[in-house]
Fold this sequence. Notes:
The protein has two domains: 4-180 and 220-244, NAD(P)-binding Rossmann-like Domain (Rossmann fold, 3-Layer(aba) Sandwich); 186-219 and 249-285 and 303-321, UDP-galactose 4-epimerase, domain 1 (Alpha-Beta Complex). It contains eleven helices and 13 strands. The chain has helices at residues 13-24, 42-46, 63-73, 89-92, 94-115, 149-168, 190-202, 223-235, 252-261, 291-297, 305-321, and strands at residues 4-8, 28-33, 53-57, 77-80, 120-126, 172-177, 180-181, 209-211, 217-218, 221-222, 241-244, 250-251, 271-273. Helix 6 links the parallel strand 5 and strand 6. Ligand F7E binds at residues 85, 87-88, 126-128, 178-179, 188-190, 193, 211-214, 216, 218, 252, 277, 279, 282-283.
Amino acid sequence: xxxxxxITGITGQxxxxxxxxxxxxxxRVYGLMPRRSTDTRWRxxxxxxxxxxxxxxxxxSDLSSVIRAVETSKADEFYNLAAQSFVGTSWDQPVLTAxxxxxxxxxxxxxxxxxxxxxxxxxxxxSEMFGLIQAERQSxxxxxxxxxxxxxxKLYGHWMTVNYRESFQLHASSGILFNHESxxxxxxxxxxxxxxxxxxxxxxxxxxxxLGNIDAKRDWGFAGDxxxxxxxxLQQDTADDYVVATGRTTxxxxxxxxxxxxxxxxxxxxxRIDPKFYRPAEVDILLGDPTKANKKLHWKAQTxxxxxxxxxxxxxxxxVSEGR
Length: 324
Ligand code: NAP
Ligand code: F7E
């Protein structure tokens, strides 16, 4: 019998890829979507799956929305991907970030506990919880030290997920995912900002690219690979926490070199440093240790950074040439 899945954050990068994956596996997919004044379904339209998803309007910061979504969807699996997910904005809207990215996780857990404790739950945790890193390679046992209101809010959600698993025996797992990108990445994140600029510069529509701290290092993977790990976590007999990463770290500078080189340009000829893109506190380096996910989930990142940047630049070259 086919299963029902509820995804919050269905209109985001991961929500779109996860919905596609679950539809391909025969799930009935329900998506909780906040009503906005303009249509936010561009990713679902780009993957051509918008007609296959049942949308439930609501907001994760509103407990009644979440309760209604759990009841309406009759979910077997609940993926909480909704968040104010941009780290930079979390210093400008720290209270909203705490509510949407942090407290709302408890709304999801409470709805499950009250309506059907058998529902399996996935919480979208993050490498930002490691912040000022306490080990060279970060694994499930590395102590946390968040460096942004976003990281702090996510850490609350992570520990509530662990707590509800231990207190109420919920099948609740926390995926500690390192940065993952794709052609569907939001334009404000650095990889997509770069690939969009590469396409515009190559096509004569932009002259330079302004960035902040290009010495920061990230462990970047492909979102399409990472949503598979989310699903695998909920297929295990017991719930647990997993680091999902590639195990390779690269500077923003080198990522730019790769992206510009894909269209035959040199990044250094176009990059300008603008202090306005620096953050009040930076996460200098992240490098994940995905050994547990490799062994227990049999999951491994399939896409190299070079392949990822090529995929993203090619998609933006197409968009820019179509006038988008
Ligand atoms: P994203 O593209 O920013 O998507 C976030 C989604 O959350 C959007 O659909 C957004 O809808 C929705 N949302 C925001 N506020 C909401 C609210 N109050 N109620 C209901 N929905 C709301 O993020 P992503 O990259 O797909 O990431 C998915 C999740 O994984 C997030 O929780 C993120 O923090 C986490 N994460 C991401 C990464 C990464 O590298 N991508 C790594 C680790 C963890 P609107 O667009 O309408 O606001
Ligand atoms: O920044 C530096 C910036 O905004 C990456 C989210 O998905 O991953 C993401 O958070 C690095 C940082 O991602 C610019 O200072 C330099 O060091 O692409 P980002 P993030 O902050 O790592 C984690 C895992 C999440 O959970 C989050 O939800 O790049 N950087 N110059 C810049 N970053 C941006 N955005 N723009 C710049 O101009």
